[in-house]
Every structure is written in C-alpha cells, then in structure tokens.
Amino acid sequence: MYAACNNAGNTKSTNDSTAVTSAKDTTVEVVATHSTIAPASTDITMHPEYAKTLARFAYTWGYPMVNMLNRKNTLSKAPQPGLLGGVLPAAPTGRIAMLHDYIDPGQTFIACPNQDVVYGLGFFSLDDQPVVIQVPDFGSRFFVYALYDARTDQIGEIGQPYGTKPGFYLLKGPNWKGNVPAGITGVLTSPTSLGNCIPRVFMDDTPEDRAAIQPLINQITVYPLSEFDGKMKTTEWKNAPIIPNPNAGNGGAETKWVIPEKFFDELGTVLETVPPLPGEEALYSQLKSLLAVAKRDPAIQKLITNEAIAMDKSLVKDFIQWKYNGKPAGNNWNRSQNNAEWGFDYFNRAGTSRSNMFDNRPNETQYFYTDYTASGEKLHGKSNYKITFKVLPPVKGFWSMTLYNKEHFFYPNDFKRYSLGTKNKTLQKNADGTLTLYAGNKNPGKDKESNWLPSPNEDFSLYIRAYWGEAGITDGSWVPPVVEKY
C-alpha cells in the first residue's frame, strides 16, 4: 500500500524513515517509507458496519473467481472428455472436450454463446501437471485458443491473429519446476494454478464447411505433459460420449455458478490459491481478516452472508443489463472494455462474469451490445425492428449479430436461426450496398426473411461480435448501426 514516488528514476529509497535524493542537487524530495506492512488484525471484535462494507466489496471483487472455481469443480467431474447433458464440452482436469458443430441452442451452462465457431472447453491444475495444447494446421481458417487464468484474464497467445504455427504448446503453472521435453513448440506460463482453455474455430453455416472442418476439429486436444510423445493425436469428436448432467435446469437462466450462501466459504479458497496482483496485498489482508473473524463469530458470518444474498439480488442481478457492461459506443450500444485483460477493472470483470463469461481479449474480439433502440425504447418482441449497417464491422476475421432472450440465451424458432453475419451466404444487401437486418417476433415477409432474426414475444437484446478487428474496430471509430422500429 505504500510506494516511494520516483522522479524520472532519480529517487533512491531506503528502509529509513525518510529518503533524500537529488540527481542534480537542485531539489530535495522527502518520501515516507515503511519496511513492512502490518497484517490485518484477526483477533478483534469487528464492527458490523465494517464487516458489511468489506463483504459488499468482496462479493463484487471475488464473484468472477468463485464463478471460475465452481465451473472448474463441476465440469472437471466428467469421467472422460465428452458432452455434459449432450450439449456442453466437459472433461476431467488436464484435458479438453470439443464440439463438432455449433453449440446446442438449448444449453444454459454459459450465457451469450455464439453460433459462428466450434467451441472446446477444459480446465487444468497447472502446478500439479502442465498440459500440452495441440494446434493443427488451420490454413486460412480463423481460430483462437483463449487461455484463461483464475481471474478470467487471458494468458498466452495462440491463434490466427498471432500467426501461431502448428505444433505442441506447453501450458504450465507458476510453481511448476520440471523440464520441458524436446518437441515442444512453445511454452506458456499461467500466473495461477487454475487454468482454462476455450478454442474457437470459425465455421460457415453450410454443409460443405461442416464437412471440411471435421479433420481440423479432431486434431484439437489438450492432455497432461506425461502423455506427450511428439505425435499428433486425433479424437473423433463427432462421436464424443454423452455425460449425464445431474444439475440440469435453472428456469431458463444461466446455471447459477455463484451461490451467495456459500460464497464466503469459497472465497477463502480463492485467497489461498490465487496470488494477489501487485498492489492487492492489503486487500487480501483485509479479506482474510474478515473471513477469520466470521469463522469464530456466527453473528458476523450471518451478517456477511446476508450481504452476499442482497448483492446477488441487486448489483449482480442488474449486471445482465448491457448498460452496465463496457462503455457507450453510439446509437445506444455499449462496447466491451478491458475484456479478458481486466487488471484492476473489477467492475467490468464482475459484470462480464455475470452477463457473458469468457470474453476474448480486445485485439481478438470486440463486442457491441444493446437492449434498446437508438431512440431509447426497450427492445421487445411485440414490435419489429430494422438494423441497417451503413458500414459492416471492419474485420480480418468475421462478424455476426446475435439475438438473445432476456437471460442471454437463444430463442428457439422454426428457422433454427440465432445469429446472422459472415457465416451466412444468403444475406440480401440493399441496392446501395448497405445491409439491413430485421428482428422481431413477426416474420417481416418473404423478401426480408433471409435477413430476419426471430425474437421471443418479450424483452430481448442484440449483440455484435467483431473478430480480429481492423481500424474502426480497434480505434473505436466504427459506430454500431441504428436500431429502429419499422
């Protein structure tokens, strides 16, 4: 919490009570320093209001990491790589499972999925044993392996935007001390032992591309370092086993990964296994103090649990509204900010953890989202809307616009259509070269049907993805389209 203020590198600090320096002997700077930081007290009678203050911050700060921890603990129970409930990739710790097509539209494990890519998913304990990430030759096809640490920050760079070569990449934890064998193409280090990998591989919505992508998908795998033999491994993911899901169903909302009544029990695991960022040491000390006091004082334990429950029903509940995610981008849209590179942006980290977990980092993807028309009216299926792109999102990869229901999932419809964009080959442009898409519960007519996203007859939202953006996306000058009634 205490830092010496350096003047262009000319300040020299000591462990004395003051430090005096001047490179040119023209100024004298006096800086108070401390050799140590006293730990927070744990044997105190903590004032209830102080405990409540800490508890409220702790719930916001720790929500994403408890979210990640519980996903890992649940999905890693899979006995073998396969499809949990037949819809979501799941695998034992240290391995990965892949889909072979777009994600099932009925899944509710993860909010805001897309139907532009084929996904994979796996969790790792990287201090126990590193993993080998196998990357086939994707040619010109867009791909990215998003690697996440326990904070939901991305780590490493594997994908087309980075010019990644085919091969074998070792992902290790911060405390692993073993030897890297010959044949490893590159080494990546996670700052936390808990790691996660979500490959994304673009696929056109055509039978031809579904067939063409299968040999590539089948070479995507992750496995413990002990199994590395330098040979490309293949799995027929189309034949992945179905793993029964004992926790299916949450009323149409996302699986509840953070239970407020259990939060402070699980926060202790986070504080012990996720090292603080530089500057977070005092925060960790305070939160550990809170947990220590609560452990011996049932009244404080009950109080902070009640605060977590209240926060879940207020702040966390409201994070599903897009106005609380990212920053304004024009025409009543917001765009993502600091996605998967959160640092100390605890607000957006928590909001994204609730509304659309596992963003890609900004240079890989920019996200634009709205619940409103350009004039400020809430989007609702009782009305029909048109969305005209004067300029399509400028990308090197691909773009899409997805329609989500109020819980940020797909709306089942006869067309089995949930998004439109680069993957679709039947979109009809206007005579002037612009593109108008339509959204609403009512079919806009045969001449517009190919450009229509069916909506539920209730509130819904729109969500634009721009993968591997060019100027306009990267510099923030591209403005999302006007959404208006018609």
Automatic annotation (TrEMBL):
It holds the Pfam family DUF1214. Residues 364-469 form the DUF1214 domain. It comes from the Bacteria. Residues 7-21 have a biased composition (Polar residues). Coiled coil: none annotated. It comes from Flavihumibacter petaseus NBRC 106054. This is DUF1254 domain-containing protein. Residues 1-21 are annotated as: Disordered. Residues 95-224 form the DUF1254 domain. InterPro entries: DUF1214, DUF1214_C_sf, DUF1254, DUF1254_sf. Gene3D superfamilies: Domain of unknown function DUF1214, C-terminal domain (2.60.120.600), Domain of unknown function DUF1254 (2.60.40.1610).
